[in-house]
Amino acid sequence: MPKTLKDMRIKASEMAENARQDDIDYVLAERLGLTPSQYELKQDLELTDDQVKQVNKDVKKLAKGISPQYILGYAWFLGYKLKVARGVLIPRFETEELVEWALEHLQDNDVVLDLGTGSGNITVALAKEAEKKGLTGLKYYASDIADAPLLISEENFLTYGVDVTTRKANVLLGLGKFDLIISNPPYIKPSEKNVMDQSVLDNEPKEALFGGKDGLEFYRKFAKQVRDHLNSGGRFFLEFGFSEEDELKALFAKELPDFKIEFRKDMAGKPRMVYGEWQK
Fold first, then answer.
1. Which of 11, 16, 258, 275 is the one with CA 20 to 30 A from 244?
2. What are 219-232's pLDDT values in tens digits?
């Protein structure tokens, strides 16, 4: 039986030969409570029998193609540990940049909607970071089209002591008015399946990934509904697929001519986020 981290790492790679090495290393490091640098430096660390048994269980799941975050039962987002489970989108690092941009525009007493909340990662990060900035009087709402994400998000809100009103809704229908709307909606085109990680396709909810035939179904509905759900001077922040900027520029120019629209690239230099402000 493997006794050192190095031995376990080798065995895990053999047991889950189709799994990415990064995923194996991530699960091992998280189970052992090691940072990435500690993980590399402590390859001679001796594992207990219980740790070996746990890692063996985890690796068997990796071998079946289960996502690391679903195996662990949590994901990290902007430094916050959030519960995730099947039926809930795993938070993406790119979305952290969307939250940081929204924070620049968040004001005291804003009424905020996290549209398509998933695990609640955006609301948790936004609320906790707003607290650090000393913002007050904020009211948070979170909506999703499915029940499973709402249940998970409510657990995460409770864990972090964030007071959030949750609603089941398809885009904005049936919701109230807000000062700021933020969303990482479904935007992947079916034609992009062939370049996606198989574990994403096998594990994560399709309704949180795919945005209709051209990936823009959500944005068309949003653009037609948003005026009825924003207060005067209201703002929105949306993530989108890197190939969709030109189409969204045309859509918003047509549907939202009275909005100030700004696009922004992510850290990888890809078009990823859009900000809109109602000039009313």
1. 258
2. 999 999 999 999 99
Q: Is the predicted pLDDT of residue 202 greater than 80, yes or no?
A: no
Tell me the whole-structure pTM to 2 decimals: 0.92
Among 105, 93, 263, smallest CA distance to 180 is for 105
Arithmetic mean of pLDDT, 230-244: 94
Q: CA 256 to CA 102: how far, in whole Å?
A: 20
How many other CB atoms sit within 10 Å of the CB of residue 2?
16
How far is 196 from 182, CA to CA, in rounded Å?
25
